[in-house]
Amino acid sequence: MYVSKADDKDWKYPQTEPYASGFLDVENGTHRVFWSEYGNPCGEPVICVHGGPGGGSDAFVARFFDPKRFRVLMFDQRGCGKSTPSASSNDVDAALTNNTTSHLIDDMNKLRVHRKIDTPMHVFGGSWGSTLSLSYAIAYPSHVRSLILRGIFLCRKKDLDFFYQGNAATFAQDRFDMSLPGAYMQYPEAWEKFVKVIPENERHDMIAAYDRLFSRSPKTPTDIEYQNEAARAWSSWEGSTSYLAPHPDSLDEYEKLSFAKAFARIENHYFVNGAFLGGKGPSNRSQNFILENVHRLLTIPIRIVHGRFDNVCPMFQADELVDALRRAGHESVELRRPPAGHSMTERENCLALTDIIEQL
Question: Is 80 left (phi over 0), alpha (psi -120 to 50) or beta?
């Protein structure tokens, strides 16, 4: 059976252990962010920005970087991974309070100061990590030496509709209705599970419907189980669609309840607010923040890998970003389109990212 995920022989560098790690209080005791560092303490600084939001950092990401050349800083964004409080807890309010894109950008700066990084950093991020990386660079271009991005996600309404809305509104009447574009066309089995959690009369806006479900205070064991089922459905929908040819156990992490609750709740919290890019609330879902601010990125070399068969963040988002950058006068942007799906661990994505980093 063909599996598109990279295996050990595809990685240029071995897995290493962090040489330092800890927690940073970023919000007067109410949020503590977990961080870890790999590689050479005196090397070129890199900050790795994970996806989701809510996905948490992974140690294997350090394998993209020559441990003799780079100093690699990772962190878990607010509410997920080892950071506290966690959105996987029964009381999610604390994890989602003061949890916006602006807060995460501030956290990246606080980590930079805390770890005594006083030179511009390479910023490495994929999917939502590309969103946050671009947003950080827009806010603080002088802190960024280069952007290495994968699976561009602009987080606009049309991007979210492609993945989360599709034919959900008409699914009950005709599940084969393909009048609207969407990832559902390629993954009908997983799509059915994602859609059926939501009552038929609420499927005209799936993100808002999931928001109402996650926002309720459960009163009975049945209510709790329904929310848990919804979290798993949301999380496993993304897990099911991230690989061109997934490994049989690729869904295991996405279906773990602790991961699924944090991942689904945080993602939905951001998406119902237009990712807090330039604003908040349902009206902000129509934002186009990143493309409207590409002029602030003109001095930063940008390298992008975007899988041609990515159905989570389809390739038109990378094409639009590159077009906007070039029209604004950017002269150092590169886009590679390997034959791969969404995940950074897709073999062709992994090889392309490693090659780009070698050439920095």
Answer: beta
